[in-house]
Structures are given as C-alpha cells and as structure tokens.
Amino acid sequence: MNTYGHTFRISTYGESHGPAVGAVIDGCPAGLPIDLSLIQYELDRRKPGQSRITTQRREPDEFEVLSGIFEGKTTGMPIHLMIRNTDARSKDYSHIADKFRPSHADFTYQQKWGFRDYRGGGRSSARETAARVAAGAVAKQLLATMGVEIYAYVSQVGPLRLETPYQELDLRQTDTNAVRCPDAAMAEKMYDFIDETRKKQDTVGGVVSGVLRNVPVGLGEPVFDKLHAELGKAMLSINAVKGFEYGSGFQGVEMYGSQHNDIFYRDGERVRTRTNHSGGVQGGISNGEDIYFRVAFKPVATLMQDQPSVNQEGEDVTVSGKGRHDPCVVPRAVPIVEAMSALVLADFYLRNQACQPNLAAQSAVASE
Amino acid sequence: MNTYGHTFRISTYGESHGPAVGAVIDGCPAGLPIDLSLIQYELDRRKPGQSRITTQRREPDEFEVLSGIFEGKTTGMPIHLMIRNTDARSKDYSHIADKFRPSHADFTYQQKWGFRDYRGGGRSSARETAARVAAGAVAKQLLATMGVEIYAYVSQVGPLRLETPYQELDLRQTDTNAVRCPDAAMAEKMYDFIDETRKKQDTVGGVVSGVLRNVPVGLGEPVFDKLHAELGKAMLSINAVKGFEYGSGFQGVEMYGSQHNDIFYRDGERVRTRTNHSGGVQGGISNGEDIYFRVAFKPVATLMQDQPSVNQEGEDVTVSGKGRHDPCVVPRAVPIVEAMSALVLADFYLRNQACQPNLAAQSAVASE
Amino acid sequence: MNTYGHTFRISTYGESHGPAVGAVIDGCPAGLPIDLSLIQYELDRRKPGQSRITTQRREPDEFEVLSGIFEGKTTGMPIHLMIRNTDARSKDYSHIADKFRPSHADFTYQQKWGFRDYRGGGRSSARETAARVAAGAVAKQLLATMGVEIYAYVSQVGPLRLETPYQELDLRQTDTNAVRCPDAAMAEKMYDFIDETRKKQDTVGGVVSGVLRNVPVGLGEPVFDKLHAELGKAMLSINAVKGFEYGSGFQGVEMYGSQHNDIFYRDGERVRTRTNHSGGVQGGISNGEDIYFRVAFKPVATLMQDQPSVNQEGEDVTVSGKGRHDPCVVPRAVPIVEAMSALVLADFYLRNQACQPNLAAQSAVASE
Amino acid sequence: MNTYGHTFRISTYGESHGPAVGAVIDGCPAGLPIDLSLIQYELDRRKPGQSRITTQRREPDEFEVLSGIFEGKTTGMPIHLMIRNTDARSKDYSHIADKFRPSHADFTYQQKWGFRDYRGGGRSSARETAARVAAGAVAKQLLATMGVEIYAYVSQVGPLRLETPYQELDLRQTDTNAVRCPDAAMAEKMYDFIDETRKKQDTVGGVVSGVLRNVPVGLGEPVFDKLHAELGKAMLSINAVKGFEYGSGFQGVEMYGSQHNDIFYRDGERVRTRTNHSGGVQGGISNGEDIYFRVAFKPVATLMQDQPSVNQEGEDVTVSGKGRHDPCVVPRAVPIVEAMSALVLADFYLRNQACQPNLAAQSAVASE
To answer: How confident is the model at residue A363 (pLDDT cuts 50, 70, 90)?
Structure first.
C-alpha cells in the first residue's frame, strides 16, 4: 500500500505529470504548533532546478494545507498537504509511451498492472518524494519538541568518498553548498565530478549518511519492527536506493566481537557506551547514542544518451535521451533521507507511548 | 508488533528460556499439501549443536502442528507451529540478571519496558528465529508450487570473502559443509578461521548472500512497500544484522549510469535484461531476473571473556564469559535468510493476486 | 485511524469548514474504466439542499481527480478524489466555540485532544461522508463488473415503519421521492412527518435498510473479520447510527432453531437456501443469497431550539438553535449506506482473491 | 485475518477438534501483574458442561502460558495462552463430512477454501471463543488497574425479555444462576424455557446486554474506528450474533431530538449528562458515562432433529441430530461478550496513550 507507519502514518498519492502529489498524515498528536515555513523550507531543499547539477524542471513546489491544522496547531485529525504539479510537460514523454526505459519501472509496472501512466514514470517518479518531504517536515516539528536532531549529508559521489567520521564534521554546514557535503573541499570536488558527468551526458551514484541525535532511549520494537529494520525499509523505499547499513555496517563483519562490543559505563545519570558500533540501536531499540547509517544510491537511470531497448510489443527500439533529469541524485536526496528518518522516529515515538505502562498517571488524567 | 506480512502473515512468540517458541501463519491459501519433514529439515539446519563451530546448546527443535493443517493439507486457517524449549538452563543466567551485557538488548529492554525476562536474553535471543524458520518452510512449499527457488549461502567470514559471482557457484553445494559456503576450498578456510576465533574465546562476523530464482514478474508494491525494501527490512530484523544491499549495492555507487543500466532485450516470449545490476527488482517490483542480495552480520556479542559493564543500579560490574554461544553466526543464519526471503515473497505473491483484476491473463505472462 | 479496509482501502480527510474533504483509495485494481459522472451522481444524492426536508447549506460537491486515473482507467495507484468546501460560513459557529452542544462530539473531542476545530463540528461533521460516497462510487463500479447490485432505502422514519419485506419492493423506485422510500404511499407520509418535525424545530430518527444482490459466494473471513461484522462496523461508523442487524436480526432471537434454520436445496448448478434468515451470510462468509440488513439512525442532535449546556470552563451556558441542519438524516444517509456497503464488499472481494490458490476454479462457481 | 486490534492485539488459532486452541496477545504493556486464576475463572464461565442447559461436551479448558509472562508479570512480549482440546470425538462428525448442515458454515467454508476441516465445524466452531475469553481475561486485568468494570448479562431468552433498566439491576448477581440473568425471578423462567426447548430437541435465541463502567473519557477514534463501531464489530464477530445496538439503539429511532439529546451539566470536577441515550459514546468517543449495549444471538443451528440438506455433490441428504450442543447459547456467551468488550477497550486505551501529546513529560522520562 502507499502508506507508511503504524501509529504516526502517512499516505501519499500522485503521479509525476498528474494534477498533484501529496501526503495525508494520520495520527499526529493534537496541539502541536506547526510552522508552515519549515515545511516550505524542506520542500525547497528537495525541489528541482536548484543548481546546474540538478534537473532543470521548474516546480515551485508550493503546498496547500487542506485539513488537520486549525489556528496554527494540529487538531489530531488527518493533515493533508497537497502540492500541485505545474511544469508537467506530458508531451515530452509521448515518444516513450510504449517503450521500456532501461533500469526504470516501465517494464515492471506494465507487467504488473497491464496499464500504466507513462508520463515521466507516473507514480514511479521520484516526484512522489515531495509528499514525503512535506510530511517529514511535520514529523520533524513533532520530534523537535523533544530535542531530537536529524541530519543527513552527502558522504560519497561516485568514487569520491568522505572518510571523515561524522563526529568530526560540522553537520550544520551541509546546506552551504549545492552538493550538500559538510566538508567544503570535498564538496567542491564532488560538484566538479557531477558537473563533468553531466557534460558527458551520463549520471553517477552516491551515498547519503544519516545522523539522528538525542533520540530517546526505547524507540523500536522487538523481532520484526526493529528500529534499524524500519529505518532500512524507509531508506530502501526511496527511489534509486540499493543498500543500507547502520553503525559498523558491512565493515563490522571483519571485526572480532571483542573489538566490536560497545562497553557500557555510567555518565552521571545516564548509562552510555564508550564506542558506538551499535549505531545507537541495540536489540532493535534505541539506546540513546547517536543513530548513524549510510544509504547507497545508484546512478540515475535516465541518460542523455540513446540506449537500445524493447517496446511493449517486444520489438527492438531506441530510447533517446530527452527530458530533464539529475546527473546525480544525492544532493536532492538529503532532505528525503531526513524526512524518512523523521517519519520512522515519529512513528516509533508514538508506538512507544502506547506500550508504556504508566497506567496510574494516565488514568488520573483521563478520569478528570 | 511481533507480526510480519500483510496478506501472508506470521506472528511469533516465545522467549529463549520460556516453555516454547512458535509461529502462527495467517493467510496461507487452503489446499496446499504440506510435507512436515521439510519443516523439520529447515529447523535442523538452524538448530544449535550442529558442529564444533556452533553453540553447544542441545535443542531437538521438534515442532508440533496445533492448527491449520488437516489430512496433510492447509485449510486456510491459522497454522500454528510450536517448538518446545527443552535445554533451558535458566540458572546459567542468574549471574547476569541485573547486568547489562555489552552490545546485547539487556539495557534497551530494561529501559523500554522496565521489566524483562533476563534468561538468555528472553525474547531478544536468536532462539526466536526457530519460529521464523518453521514458518518459512511453509512459505517455501507455497512458492515451490510456482517453481520459485530460494538459496542463501555464506559469502564472507571476517576478512575471508568469496569473490566468485553467485552465477558461477553451484548453490546446491552449500549444505555440504558446516560453514554453508558453496565453494569447498573457501569453506575450509572459513571453518578454520571460525574455529581459531572460538579458541581465542572471541567471535567474528560474516555475510550471507541470497539468491531468489524464478520469481514471477510483478511482485512488490510501489512507493513504500517495494520488494527490495521489504526484503531489506526482513533481513535487518534478523538478530545481529547490520546491513543489506541488493543488486549492485554499495558498489553500484561508483558506476556511471551508462554502465549500470540493464539493457532490455527479447528472449523468445520473455523480455529480459542483458546485465542484472538491478538485482531482479525495478521500481520496487520483480522483473523476472534473479533477485540477489547480501546481508552483513556483526560478530556475536556474547564472548567467553570477561567484560566490564554496569548493572541496573548503575554500578560497575564484570560480565563474565559463560553460557553456550556461537563463535560466528552466519552458518546457522543461512536457513534464516532463506526463511525470511520466502516469507517476503509469499506475502507479495498473495498481495499481487489481490491487485490483479485479470489474474489468469497475468499469470500467463508471469509464468513464462 | 481515518482509514477503512485491508486490501481495497480508503483514507479520508477534511473538516466541515476547512478547505476541502476527500478520499484516497488505495488498492483498486488497474485497468478499471471509471465513469466520473457516476461519482458525481452519488455525490448529488448525498449533497445538502436537495429538498425542503434537508439542510439548506449549499454545496455543489463537485470533485476533482488528483491521481490514479489515466485516460479514463484506474492505474492501480492511489485514486484521490477531492471535494472543495465552498459554503463554509465559519462565523455561524463562533458562538459555540467553547460550548458543548448536547449529543455532539464537542465535549469528547475537547477532552481527548485538548484542542479542536469547532467550526461545524470540524471532523465530526457528517460532511466527511461526502468523501466516503465518492470513494464508494468507485467501489460500486468495480463491483458492477461482477454484477453485484447495491441498494439502500429508508424503511422507517420516527414511528412510521414500512413493514413490506424488501423482496416485495421495487428498489429502483427509491430515488423517485425526496425521502428515498420505495413505497410511494409511505414515502408521502414520511415526508409529511419530517416536514412537521422540521416546523416544530425538532428532529427525528429513522432506519435505512440495505440489500446487496449477486454477491459472489465466499466473501468474508472467519473469526474476527466476518462479512457481517465488517458491514456492521462500517454502518456503525456513519454519523448518528445507533444499531445494526442483518438477516433475522433482533427478531430472530424469538425464533426456535427449527424455524430459523435455512434449509439447503439444489437449484440447477447452485446450492441455495429456501429461507434467508441468515441474511446471505453464514459463518461470516457470503453464501450467494441476498445480503440484507437494517441500520438505525438517531434523531439529529442539532436543534433549532435553545438548550442548556456547559462550556469548556464548566460554566452553565445556553446553546441556541442556529446553523443549517437536517430535520431527519435518513434520506441523505441512503447513498452513504450504499457507499459503505460497496467499500466493504470491494475489500472482501480483493481479500478473497488473495486467499484463493485456485482463483479460476473458484470464480466459475462464484459467478453462477 | 484471525487478528483483532491495532495496538493491543490478539491473534487466535485452532479448530474444534484439532490439538488446541489459543490466543497470542501482542502489545500488552510490561510490568502488569497477572493473576492466572482469573484467567481460569473466565474460562470456567465459558466452558461446556456447566449445567443441564449447556452442551455436555467435557473440556477442562485448562490453559498453559507459553510466553510473555515472567515472575508473575507481563514482559511486553507476546503472551501466548494455549488450551488443549481433550474431549475431541472426531468420529461424531464423520457422518457429516460432506454434508452441509443448515445455517452452519459448512457450505460457505467449502466454497471459499475448497477444502475444510469438517470435524465439529473446524474453525467455525464457537470453541474458538475460548481463546478470546482467555485473552480477554488479561485485558480485564489491564483495565482493572484503571477501575474499569465490565459486565454482561442475559436480558432476553426467546420471548422472555427482562425490561428492567440495567441501572436498577445488581449486576454482581449475574453469575448466581445458570442462565446468567441478574434478576432471579426472570432467570428461573428463562431456565425453564431453555430446558423445555432442549427437551423438544430444539434451540432458541437470546440477548446479552453489556455495561462498561468507569471507562475513561477519550477512548475511540473519529470516523471509521469509532468506539461503538469497534464494539459492534467485536460483538458481531461472535458466533451466532445477528445484531448490535448501543444506547437508545433501534428504539431511539422513534424519539425526537429534543427528547433524545443528553443535556450536559457540571458535577463537581466532571462534566456529565443528565440522560444517557448516547450510551456513553459521543462522536465515537467515550464521554465517561456508562457504555451499554445489546447483542442479539440467533437460535443455535445444531438441532437434535433430522433436517433435509444437500451434500458437496449437490445430492439430497438428511442431516441427523447428533453431537453435543447448547439449546441456547446466551448463558455461555456472557463471558465472551465481556471478553470482547475488554479487548476493545484495552486496544483503545493504548491507542489513546499514543495520540496524547504529553510530549514534555514523556521526553523527560525517556531521556534519563
């Protein structure tokens, strides 16, 4: 289904070249003041046309609140954020109406549903993520009331990998450059690499790293709905993602247990760990340390080059390079990774409230 | 919740040292003949005590069918598979009743619920995966009626990495050795490495690779419930998993789009791709090619060494190395990865039936 | 949550005096031709201002399709139907901003969420049902492809009860009068009764009966999600509903089993029952006979009379009779009961597809 | 699915003549002391063979706790309560293996799944409700910590209807007689009526009334998951139920709004209503007044008389009166109605915790 979350839940809708995309948030607690400009801020971070290294499609990505917010505060009812599509040039796509673009969803959608909206990939377009970003901006405001901080940044573009650990970076610098890499020198190299790739009419992949700070202890569920498992699903659900690792990740494989174990110690009133190979999650549940993870994005599938393919009739055809697309997706993926992080945490936060047995206190309130 | 799946759904229960663990499968179609010996076969692959490199806990892991199977066939009602715990030495754990073992769930469980079954980690123990393996063996039998083949194997132990692509391996050789690596020479090296690690009273991580063949075109959902996103969640929900990648994975990051794109061609009645960087999934939906992925497991947290820690009162304590544990989890993780793969595919298979208005026509295409 | 259904699922949003109400349908199969005029037709049946005996609020209730329909057919993606509110006179409600109207949701909403949109009851207003009716019109079109017929009609207004069994009524006559009672003579009496009640500035209750024909055998689930249980929930979720009964209902209580049992017989290729006290549902699953049920609606709570009450501060206040409201809700409830019936059946239809291992064989039986 | 509830969730399994029935409770808060004897007490109230007017099947209905309770308290993990079937005389049913018993689920199960466990109705048997009663006994203990009181009683048997309002009854007298009617004189009449019906080898229906006291204000959700809608679904999901009404119910239809509205007044710190036609629920949410409702049960379908029917081949057959069954189901239905009430309230109680925005207090706790 087009829905994510159990208790704080979002449902999105909309196609790349339909009238609108949007998200309906269900389960947000009432009485939360919402700063609409923060929603617009996040949409602006994701929107196309930000620089030479992003797609030239022009969408203002302005949203409208259709429900759930009254006098500046949430009411506990579904919050609907709608974003009209304005620069939908459907004619750009008539040439591929029956062709299967390589490594796109054209073939699988056609086979699964037997009928598809081919314009710009329809629902499979990353345009859908605008709705996630808007919803995530609400989740961020909920989490901010608890002091939770959510950061993502570009840590790799093609072969250019930022080796500096996140602890040594100033994550507030991420948005100071078009690449969204908090290391200025590396950002410049990455920018040039993407721009050269664009000039070659090619595309390249990258990695977005996430860091979630001040997450309360206790978020996550045992067994299937572990915090990192839901984070992984949320990240893998973003267009073009091929991999997810958290904490020590794939590199932890090569460590001995005696190196990898995070030793507990007491720090004032808190129990903390001296290292954080666990990535802030133990047994599927947040332990209060920083949650960190890496998300791999493949190179964008739409090229400005001709490619051979087949059409719905199984005939050989050529897919020619047209349309407006990103040479590298990761700069615009940063707010999406943050949004999905916020949605995962908000859901677990509310689920955790439900499982807490503060019965006495609660009933005292409820019976008044 | 302790439930996985939307339409083919399993719920598991049970603690490491409680009376039993088990799974209730809901949504399995009726009339499916079940070979109980195949369930036992999978449980035997996962059970402890198989060789010198696995834990010496002795559990026969025999199961009982409490419902849902009548005269050898499924009835469409919940199928309950229960496995009694027999070798539950709870006294082994009294010494850690109030201590937080490093990189275990002791601390987070204590904080989240305020009360925990400390015996062997309670529900956080990998013993719970026996229930998944039993349920997965039912899902495998459902999928086998369509010809779907599910393989997993050990592709890395600590620094020892099998570089051979899965296409060049004979995956039926996986169970011919205790490590479950289909390359005999590498298996031997891995065995020795694990055994040496064990002798050092240490533990080490590894990677399990999965290969899913003959998966029908069309499994998976758009947006949030993409096939690879659910696979990722399912794998990340297994104890000790730190990362998941499919198809080109993290390495795909460094490729150009012109290298990475999988070119379509016609092969008889089928549309296929010349390469498979997509890992059998495009736009979140299976395209009929092999689905392959890699799952990273951290080194087991329980060591036969003393480690410093704190207890529930925040006092400094020593966690001493006791109990019976695996020096490396990946050999026994192979059937778990297969089981979770089967559960994911079975669920999507049934979900796909629901979304098809013209199933007959579709299956004709899909089965080719 | 503001979502109904498991596989064919709708989510609604919107407040009485907010910018819009609407529904997002998820899970509708692809390739279904949609006649938009049939959606408008159902909205027109529900909309206010149809006659002297309905509220004088003026809403054109025109809808916009924002996603999920392309070139006249469903795509399998979420279908978003949005209805703008136009005649939202919020000022009408400022006088009750902090007062609790008797038998409305004002008090409970205030207590539960601590903050509420008081304009016209906000989300608790029956205006939300416009979204259900629009979504139900899509479900009806899905069901029509199988020949399912969905009827509802007014069978009681206050003390005026139509005793004629549904089998003896011509249900196509329902919409020939403003009351929506298929018996013309009774409709006239009911109309006069409602109009007199209106002149007395009072309101009155009523009963809507539902009849679902040609429902395939096999819809419904065992145990919790029985077909009649979901129908009951769906009906009880409509504003002002106080009771639900199906088949013999409360009157069946007084029968002996030997009278009540429906005897099976063979009618050509079908197995049928000679009587239908079961109301078309046995063991929670449709048996192919007509499904029929009755839904009790209380008198509308908004009166054109002054009533004593308290406000949020607990002070005594007077709620004066203002606003625009229906003296009796059942005429406009008829399309809502039909819409909810269609949503329940569509969901079970798709769920049934998922649970069938041999759909082709089954549909042969079911379609007879 | 065989699961009920969103946050406090139960899944049941088991057939009438299989090895066991049982329930897995997921989402129960941790640290709740469980008195196992109270679970047995409720099972004893439901179990067969209690008196001459109930079935003579002999089941001790003893349960085993397989998980989720440790040292007398819940751990937050799934609680599995298993009840072995002991007096399963499967041979009693071989004579109806291919016959469709009138007004049973035999026909619909056969058509839906194509294969069924015919022994005693398999899963469609009311034996499944033992699992609900066990789970409900846990929910009751959770609710008891808040002072919630749950009562059900027999208010009608065939034509014998107890007209006394529930407020004038001493509901603690319910279990003092075999009928479970709190009015001793009426109970005696009902007993005789049921016994005479039994002697005539017939069966008769009845009504169970429910009264839920001290329910906190604020339980329930807007729109689809209204408290009374979920209560209705829960009751309608019980075997043999044909109708549900709450508060004024079907009789409220005949009232004017000016009679029906419940006027608010201030009673000390509480806001209360002078009448309670709302049945304790307004806008789908509890308002703190007593919740009351009535549930209609049809006469039991199994008769000790021969009845004509058809078999799976469509041939005319006779279903002869054998087996052990109740002449009237309502005395044993009382604990089932209570159990389902408890499950509904427990779920809404936890859902309400999740939607409460006590962010500041919560984060203070969580961050320590």
So the answer is: very low
